Amino acid sequence: MIDLSVLRPLVWMDYRLAVLFTVLLPLALLLWAFVRRSEAIQRLLVIYWKVSSLLAITVYLMIGGFGVSFVAALMARLLIPVSLWFWVDLNEEIQDLRSTPLKLSFSAWRWSVTIYSLLGSVAQLLFLPCAFSGSTLASDQCQVWLAAPLLFREYFHSGYTRGFLGVLGIIGLVVYVAVLGYFVMVRLGRQGRSAINQ
Known about the structure:
Strand content: under 5%
Number of domains: 1
Helix content: over 70%
Largest sheet: none
Oligomer: single chain
Order of helices and strands: HHHHHHHHH
Distance between the termini: 41 Å
């Protein structure tokens, strides 16, 4: 494993980049697309927010100290690029938009978050063993990943126990997996790669 003196700053940098690329920039782009009435970009960003909610669930799972949070983190990093490029109709609509600062900014963000997510998923694979063993989860290398979620708890949920917040994460994960399963097994067969009614 990586030395803690190297790993800790890298993990904190990853969390900072995650806040930038997966929360602040897409929120700003969604507001901009709403103001400019760019429906294709709005719809794709709404789909993005639905899929990326797994990142928020992961934070709560990590607060609870659940190993499954490492699997959820990996899945979120893989599903986000899929959600941004999967929809044939939205990709065509966005491509056909006239060149504007919004379209340029959105395209730059979409490529950036795709690259960030794919590189992050490769890095996350190194820590996947944290999900499958209590002794591994207790190791310093795995615990480094829990530091930022615990700080988040201190700022926003200091009145709640780690166990309670972790259970909220489990409930969120169950609902997320059920909705994703329904989409894959039922809706995907009906509408294919079209984003109608998404």
